[in-house]
């Protein structure tokens, strides 16, 4: 049996070895050209990371592919190839809500690839501050969850900051119940970020009603607490379980099996058009009858679709609101540019947060 198996596998493995040798030669050739690109960018003081270009590269390769690799596999492979090429040009640092093991860190790696230096921050405020101060080139912040809605602090900081949104990522969120022992023996409380507790409240009520629920700054912080305290169970993802050496008591405990969190990438540089973009805005309108209808009219007039509409109190004490809006297209697209020009005349306040490739 073993001899027959090996005799049939041997020629296939030899073919793979030949293909691997060709691949490594081509990858090194690609890296050499990427270094030349880096020298040209350096001469013109252009940014190393161009998310619109990377999106175009991946989309083109997906269209070229005839299988058996799926589109998501091609995207994952080429994201790491491009990340390694970027690292040859410059070490890019991205700030995220820490500590190590959070979904924000996972989102960072999925967006930029693993050839990036992460900067864990104790709060979303600190992520913004790190990028504004130049301690990090980019920041990764959660902006909304499919089950719990908007992340209010991120929306408030987007209003205040001069940073721009340069990209987005929709990350599937799979929560686990973790403990140091891998069991619930001696456990009296469950700790997690408030959003995670809310996303698992039905499961907790049904399966662990005796556990006190305690909100902490992040799921990874809850995992860190569980390492040194056998009375604590943490809600966190696989990355936190591996990093902190915790046992999985129950997996996939989120109430919504399709639970996802949308993250945005913030930075100093505007992002060019990829051909598959959206633009994020913050607006306010005068407090008069029909003001919102008049404001949105230019979008319909120029054929621009609105994909998201979220309101936040202006905290002025006068029942005024800021509206967070996503529209299809890049701000440089003629139809979008014309609509934005009209919106600027009609709005009491208009801030363009950025145009960037839409998550596929």
TrEMBL record:
GO molecular function: chorismate mutase activity; prephenate dehydratase activity
Any one cellular-component term (Gene Ontology): cytoplasm
Location in the cell: Cytoplasm
NCBIfam families found in the cross-reference section: CM_P2 (TIGR01807), PRK11898.1 (NF008865)
Keyword Lyase: yes
UniProt name for this protein: Bifunctional chorismate mutase/prephenate dehydratase
Site entry: Essential for prephenate dehydratase activity: 261
